[in-house]
Amino acid sequence: MARKLIIDTDPGVDDAFALALAALSSEVDLLGVTTVHGNVPLSATTINARRILALCKRADVPVAAGAARPLVHRRRKEAGEVHGADGLSGRSAALPEPSRPLDERDAVTLLADLLEAADEPVTIAPIGPLTNIAALLAAHPAAAAKIERIVIMGGALGHGNTTAAAEFNIWSDPEAAQRVLAGDDAPCVLVPMDLTYRCAVGAAWLDELDSSGPIGAALHALTPDYREHYRGALGWDGMVIHDAVAVAEAIRPGTLRTDRVPVQVECSFGPGRGATHADRRLPALRASTDAPDAASDVDVAVDTDLDALRALLLDGLR
Questions:
Q1: What positions carry a catalytic annotation?
Q2: Does the pLDDT value for residue 291 go beyond 60?
Q3: Where is this region: Disordered (predicted)?
């Protein structure tokens, strides 16, 4: 039986790949998509998500717009310099126009309604800032009983990408991330950029996607600005499709190897704001010291079979 899945997203090039991976998969029942502020403003993330679903011929999937800003403090920047001004290297308008209207419900209401109607547990894959998910768990606590796992792309165990300490999704709304990761509402899997960077794809992979058919070619056409950014970030011709790594785990549990450790998010206004602190000390050492009350156990993805993962992504997208 197909696994029930909801994606919360802020497309973004890697989000577009991740959403297409889920929309095309026969292994999941994609119940809905919710959008959030992030890589570009909410209006752009919402139309981008709807156009990607139209590309994949998934007019059956409802899309609802969510939070246009973080829970508490406004952000200082978005990521247009990475993804292009429209989030998709300036090529969003080249995608098919959606035939299904935007859902009249807000994202949190759609999430709550889909969970309430589900006859089995649902996986949620938030691949942008966690504002919508934090609001859901706060406003609809009973909904957590219907959540099988929350598979999150975000965080950094080493250095960040938006600041020296913080990864973009978590940095965009640290208070929301702390609410979700430390709330103990539902089991969380955190897929940090330390692992997603190792899963980067190169020119040959991208060329094969481009030649695979209309959908692969359309996805490939969204990558120029993003790929140019990663030529500098990686030092070679390739790019990191962070969110698709997390969605691969959401679709097929066990794709990534995880360690269960306490995690908390730095919500101060110092240089560490948005940092993800994972306590990877041995359990005996953790037990012998004072553990912070704000940390909860999270399954943190630390490894995978890189070749197998890249093959899974390519097969799923073509």
A1: 242
A2: no
A3: 76-100
CB 21 within 8 A of CB 248: yes
Residue range 224-251, pLDDT digits in tens: 999 999 999 999 999 999 999 999 999 9
Mark residue 136 as left, alpha or beta (left: phi above 0; alpha: psi -120 to 50; beta: remaining).
alpha
Q: Which candidate, 83, 157, 151, 89, places its Cα nearest to that of 122?
A: 151
Other beta carbons less than 10 A from residue 208's beta carbon: 15
Q: Which residues face 277 on adjacent strands?
A: 264
Euclidean distance between CA atoms 38 and 11, whole angstroms: 8
Q: Which residues contact 258 (CB under 8 A, 6 or more apart)?
A: 189, 299, 300, 301, 302
Q: Are 314 and 205 in contact (CB under 8 A)?
A: yes
pLDDT at 290: 63
In this structure, which amino acid lies at residue 93?
A: A
Whether the predicted model's global pTM rises above the 0.85 cut: yes
pLDDT of residue 1: 78
Task: Please tell me what DSSP assigns to residue 247.
Answer: H
Residues 38 and 33: their CA atoms lie apart, in Å, by: 15
Distance (Å) of CA 228 to CA 78, 89, 92, 114: 18, 10, 17, 38
Are 309 and 242 a contacting pair, CB within 8 Å?
no
199 Cβ contact list (under 8 Å, min separation 6): 240, 241, 245, 304, 306, 309, 310
Domains and CATH numbers, the chain: 3-317 (3.90.245.10)
pLDDT tens digits along 74-119: 866 666 667 888 999 999 999 999 999 999 999 999 999 999 999 9
